[in-house]
Structures are given as C-alpha cells and as structure tokens.
Automatic annotation (TrEMBL):
UniProt keyword Secreted present: no
Domain of life of the organism encoding this protein: Bacteria
PANTHER family per record: LMBE FAMILY PROTEIN, N-ACETYLGLUCOSAMINYL-PHOSPHATIDYLINOSITOL DE-N-ACETYLASE-RELATED
Database matches in Gene3D superfamilies: LmbE-like (3.40.50.10320)
UniProt GO MF annotations: hydrolase activity, acting on carbon-nitrogen (but not peptide) bonds, in linear amides
Record keyword Zinc present: yes
GO BP terms, alphabetized: glycoside metabolic process
Protein name: LmbE family N-acetylglucosaminyl deacetylase
InterPro entries: GlcNAc_PI_deacetylase-related, LmbE-like_dom_sf
Keyword annotations of the record: Zinc
Amino acid sequence: MEPEQPDPTEQLTILLIVAHPDDIDFGSGGSVATWTGEGHRVEYCLVTDGDAGGYDEGISRPEMAALRREEQGAAADILGVSDLHFLGWPDGRLAVTHELRRDLARVIRRVRPDRVVTQSPTRNLRSMYGSHPDHTAVGEAAMCAVYPDARNPFAHPELLAEEGLAAHTVSEVWISHVGEGADHYVDTTDAFDRKVAALQAHKSQTAHMDDLRGRMWGWGRSQAKAAGFGAERLAEGYLVLDTR
C-alpha cells in the first residue's frame, strides 16, 4: 500500500506544541522535514527549556537550559524551521493550569495555525517514556488552549485587550506518540537522514545513545508496518482530530 499523498496546492501553517527540546525531533522530526519540504509553514512551541535534562552534573541548570535552547535551534534549522517560541516553564514541574492554558492560547493566536501537533494527554501504560508527566500535561493544556481558549474571545480577555490577539479556531489537532491508536501516518522515508541529524544536534541528550540511527529506523519501520506501507518504508503515526 502506497502512503497517502497530501494535496500539494494547499499550504498549511502547522504549530507543534511540546514539553521539551528534542520531543519534536524524536516523535515528529521526519514529519516536520516532510512538511517543510512540501512548502508548509512550521513553527515550534517549547513549553520548557529542558533544564532538568542531560547527564552532566558539572553543568548548572541555567547553563543546561541555554544549551538546550541552542541545540533545539540547530535541530530546527536542519528540518527547515526558523520560528520557535520558548515559554520558559520549569522542566519536570508542569501541570494543567489556567496560566499555562493562557500562554498556549497566546501562541496559537499569534501563529494562527491550521494544524496543531501535540503530545498525548493520556498516559500510555505500555510506554513509560512516552508518558512523561510533562508530556501529558502539555497535551491536555494544548487541547484546552485549542478548545475553548484560543477561539473564545472572552477567554483570557487580556490577550485581546492588552496584546491585540484576536480569537483563532484551529481546524485540526494531531496527537503524536499514540502507538496503536494512530489513524494517520506520514511517510518519512525520504526525511529519515534529516530526522537523525536533528536528533544528533541534541548532543546533551543523545550523544550517549548507542545506535541512535538504528533505534529510530526500527521505530519508523514499525509505524510504517502499522500503516500498511510498502517494504522498507518509514512512518510517523498520529491520531487526527477534527477541532473546527
């Protein structure tokens, strides 16, 4: 079965909302490279700077935050993305709050995306790493920001009154890291080398990993098999929600 091909005449604005630097590159790096290659506008929203990450105890947490911002910028450049929104929330301490919802609604109203891609708001009991509490908190807060916050002109009224950010309705949300729950797949075979290069740009997080390329190939191949794509194809899967 050949992968579904998008309409090349429809140019979209796509906003990815995740908890940490490198989350996008692990889960959606091939998709991002594919989308930018097709001419879509892609922007990132990173809720934390990833200051609680890494393995070097000799580096301070503010230094780690600065390093991870730099790494994410380098990775984004590889995938053709130049617009990044860093919110600076504390790594490892995220919860779904009114303030986080407001901050995400602010970014959505600024970017005005057709599609939001975010993390799953529900815990996957078969995947401890995929169910990091920061990930599920961001997934839930992003869904709240999509509906009702960003589209409701009376929600977070300061966004309009003080910042001039008018309400915006996101047409669709794509949830990543859903495993068997995926119902749509992006063929990422031709983007695989760029995905790996983007992950390698996160040196503080991936330099210690044995066979990073092999791991990503295996994961992409399993997704492609679930999609019914042909032999030796790679994919990234999503649950696609109509949020109009």
